[in-house]
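Example for reference:
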Amino acid sequence: MTADSSSQWNGDGIHKITGTKYDELRFDIEGNNRRGFNRDGIHKITNQKWDEEDYDYRLFHKDTGINKHTRTKCAEDGYDLDGYDK
């Protein structure tokens, strides 16, 4: 958490604008999203670009490049691992 952002959270770790544990960009007071990735895409437990199941922040598997939800090389937004639109 940066000094600037500390005023956005109350003492219970609730964001003052959203009223949840997450800010408008869906990061918590520690700077992680719900899956444990920070703004740079690094996972808080593995300290790498992948979580414990070898998926990145967009749910692409590190070995196969297959998206966990779509079971294809494209995510639900239509973009692939490299950010190209199908």
The chain is about 0% helix and 0% strand. Residues 50 and 56 are 4 Å apart (CA to CA). The chain has a mean pLDDT of 92. The radius of gyration is 15 Å.
